[in-house]
């Protein structure tokens, strides 16, 4: 079994997966290593549709092989992935208020996120609400990370799966 973390950009999926288990895989990191370029570079060079296809293939091939998988926020843009995730039993939605996510994303100088950088606030907010409904539907567990420290979120996840 694999725990699969879903949620909007900035929810803390990559951070939490890494801390939860040595046997983690981050889909963006996996894709970046495979194609020897940052995900942002891949999206800018090859386009978002190509990236979504790679995400589909990667998700399918990695589930079951790692204790925890952090996905990219757009994983649920693919209908195929939605169906796949609906059939999985350990999908955890890391959620947060829009303003909280925005603050985290603005502070994060390490990861480049074309979807975040190329949208104006209103467009990003619309995307957030559109995606939030889908994350909720697909989730087996939901952790609200708003105003929670990384350590607190990690402790809740451990309570679910390691207690
Ligand atoms: N619970 C949290 N509280 C405050 N900052 C956080 C929290 N979780 C993650 N962050 C920060 O937000 C940014 C995005 O985290 P990241 O793990 O890359 O999110 P995601 O993979 O969901 O996009 C990073 O700078 C990270 O340190
Ligand atoms: O929401 C999205 O469409 C994306 C989210 C990013 O991952 P994080 O959610 O880990 O930031 C990354 O996969 C890519 O930039 C596209
Ligand atoms: Mg991430």
Automatic annotation (TrEMBL):
<feature type="binding site">
    <location>
        <position position="131"/>
    </location>
    <ligand>
        <name>substrate</name>
    </ligand>
</feature>
<comment type="subunit">
    <text>Monomer.</text>
</comment>
<comment type="similarity">
    <text>Belongs to the shikimate kinase family.</text>
</comment>
<dbReference type="InterPro" id="IPR000623">
    <property type="entry name" value="Shikimate_kinase/TSH1"/>
</dbReference>
<keyword id="KW-0067">ATP-binding</keyword>
<dbReference type="GO" id="GO:0008652">
    <property type="term" value="P:amino acid biosynthetic process"/>
</dbReference>
<dbReference type="GO" id="GO:0009073">
    <property type="term" value="P:aromatic amino acid family biosynthetic process"/>
</dbReference>
<feature type="binding site">
    <location>
        <position position="73"/>
    </location>
    <ligand>
        <name>substrate</name>
    </ligand>
</feature>
<keyword id="KW-0418">Kinase</keyword>
<dbReference type="GO" id="GO:0009423">
    <property type="term" value="P:chorismate biosynthetic process"/>
</dbReference>
<dbReference type="InterPro" id="IPR027417">
    <property type="entry name" value="P-loop_NTPase"/>
</dbReference>
<feature type="binding site">
    <location>
        <position position="113"/>
    </location>
    <ligand>
        <name>ATP</name>
    </ligand>
</feature>
<protein>
    <recommendedName>
        <fullName>Shikimate kinase</fullName>
        <ecNumber>2.7.1.71</ecNumber>
    </recommendedName>
</protein>
<feature type="binding site">
    <location>
        <begin position="10"/>
        <end position="15"/>
    </location>
    <ligand>
        <name>ATP</name>
    </ligand>
</feature>
<keyword id="KW-0028">Amino-acid biosynthesis</keyword>
<keyword id="KW-0057">Aromatic amino acid biosynthesis</keyword>
<feature type="binding site">
    <location>
        <position position="28"/>
    </location>
    <ligand>
        <name>substrate</name>
    </ligand>
</feature>
<feature type="binding site">
    <location>
        <position position="14"/>
    </location>
    <ligand>
        <name>Mg(2+)</name>
    </ligand>
</feature>
<keyword id="KW-0479">Metal-binding</keyword>
<dbReference type="Pfam" id="PF01202">
    <property type="entry name" value="SKI"/>
</dbReference>
<dbReference type="GO" id="GO:0005829">
    <property type="term" value="C:cytosol"/>
</dbReference>
<keyword id="KW-0963">Cytoplasm</keyword>
<feature type="binding site">
    <location>
        <position position="52"/>
    </location>
    <ligand>
        <name>substrate</name>
    </ligand>
</feature>
<comment type="function">
    <text>Catalyzes the specific phosphorylation of the 3-hydroxyl group of shikimic acid using ATP as a cosubstrate.</text>
</comment>
<dbReference type="InterPro" id="IPR023000">
    <property type="entry name" value="Shikimate_kinase_CS"/>
</dbReference>
<keyword id="KW-0547">Nucleotide-binding</keyword>
<dbReference type="InterPro" id="IPR031322">
    <property type="entry name" value="Shikimate/glucono_kinase"/>
</dbReference>
<keyword id="KW-0808">Transferase</keyword>
<keyword id="KW-0460">Magnesium</keyword>
<dbReference type="GO" id="GO:0004765">
    <property type="term" value="F:shikimate kinase activity"/>
</dbReference>
<comment type="pathway">
    <text>Metabolic intermediate biosynthesis; chorismate biosynthesis; chorismate from D-erythrose 4-phosphate and phosphoenolpyruvate: step 5/7.</text>
</comment>
<dbReference type="GO" id="GO:0000287">
    <property type="term" value="F:magnesium ion binding"/>
</dbReference>
<dbReference type="GO" id="GO:0005524">
    <property type="term" value="F:ATP binding"/>
</dbReference>
